[in-house]
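Suppose a classmate hands you a notebook page containing two proteins, each written out with its sequence and a corresponding row of structure tokens. How would you begin to make sense of it? This section walks through that situation. The first entry is reproduced here exactly as it would appear on such a page.
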Amino acid sequence: MTANRSLLRRGSAGAPPHLHQRSAELFYLLDGALDVLVSDEITTLHPGDLLVVPAGVPHAFAPTSGSDADVLVVSTPGTARFDYYRLLDRLHRGQATGQDITDSQERFDNHYVTSATWQRRAQSQ
């Protein structure tokens, strides 16, 4: 199992639509409010809510409009994603490219997909 606690500030983009072929992902909301896309449906989590996304199911997440989100994310079976988070940090600092992220999909089992539902949510924010 791999666990990661993330504090997503209001207005942040969160994680775009993606799927994991080899692991399920569990979201437990500690504080705030979190919108989570699962397939084509968006659910809003509140403190104490738990949601499990099975392997192979497209999903995305971001803080609900006007809210922060403090979330515990657990993947099982565990995968070595800490280097992926470091790669994302380098991307945000301009030290990596979108192509670097694309090239890492198999290594980190993080496969990006498109979602009209998530795109409509982003446009309405």
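The notebook's second entry, a different protein, reads as follows.
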Amino acid sequence: MKLTSLFLSIILFLVFTECSKTKQSGETTSNSDSTKATSSEEASKPAEESTSAGSGIVLKGIYATSTKIPAASFSYYNLFDGNKNTYWSTMPGAGPDEGIMLYFDKPLVIDALEITQPGTETNSRITSFTIYTNGQKLTDRDYTNDKITINMSNVYSLFIRLDQLDDMIKGNKEGTVVTSFPSEKTAAISELKILLKGGVKADIVIPKQVKGTITASSTLAPDLSYGVRNLFDSRSEFAWAEGDKGNGIGQSLNLQFQDEQTITGLEVMNGYQRSDKHYSANTRVKTLTLSDETGKQSEVTLNDSQGEQLVSLSTPLKGKNIKIKVKDVYPGASYKDMVISEIKFKNGDAEFILEDNVTESLKNALVKRAKGTMLEKVLDHRIGNEIQEMDGQISSLILRSDYTFVYYMRGWTDSGRDTSTDETIADGNWEIKELSADMAVIRIFGKLMKQSKTQNYYTGETSTDDLQIFQDLLTIDAGGISPQKFLSPLVFAPSQN
């Protein structure tokens, strides 16, 4: 039990890091053509907790770790539409360890969650969830009669992770327990109700998505990982990175909205906010110039800080075509590549983002490309291995069709005098290097966190933590997944061979 709690603490630390960023904001109030983001005194004061639905709870961000295509039919919007016949669904083969992340605009007092599931043949029933508030795991929260008791205050973020499902399979290969999930099955939720103090249902307001397209003057390779689609995904660990030879000055984003839009400000997560190391290593934006199709311009200056910051335009812009150009930057310690993690647009108090019209086409193309190859065996599937002995290990890997991945590992040894545990979590992006019917070579890259603890009978506990930027090569064949350097090997269940 203690080992499990330790492993979860690493996962939760990283989730909490992302959650805490949503609470950092600064607002610009300036009448000049050049405006600067500054942390307001009001933003630093404790926010008043919301205990009633009021005029609605605005989500600062929301994302699903996996979404079935077409997204228009299976997106997270269905969770709050009041229609039990529509639902959010994972990709086929995805279920365990997937979930929904929500960030609130103010802290909530949450009594309970009501989670309704659709009764379709393709969806595997979820029998248990793991709930995290502000990055911290809640223990002893049973899922009974579609309800989970929360009883938590000051909730800024909520992650609902799918834990156990009816159709999960366990096999054994040479002493290793292999967990898998049927490739034709999905997991789904039709309605999510957040019950505030006294059981009052929260009226959830999701950021508006507007139709349009966005292009960048350049994108760092591989563009599947660093493309402009990352600017509107509510995940600060994924970002747009320009690919010019210089430091990003002069690079631009061109937006073409389907309908005319008014922009009075921006909410920006500057730099590469995957980790502190990623942020300092890469170049960040200092000054942006925005212009519309009439020639009006407005210049804004961003702080060199993580978290979300609000900048107001001295001259509101209006039109279908908006250009955002980099005028000045803060230099990175290691790389010239200029990076922006997230952008939201403001029209008065209203927020909107550009509808993602890229990810679905990328997923469709990848699923088609993987057909009949070794990649098809693992794409969107959780590959889990367990060795439960005195010296044991639990590990899992998911390669998602949106070109993101996550890897967990917990290992332990017990010599009788010393008990040691090693915990690893890695996440980020991936790309195909080689692909055939018999083999796939995948490059993964992102952040990797390790935590080691030793419990000695005489000296007590010692621990070490390490967070690093990393990359690794995975070779996938009939036997399993063989990493080159950082990750542990994974084997397939006999039924998967």
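A careful reader of the second entry would note: The mean pLDDT is 87.
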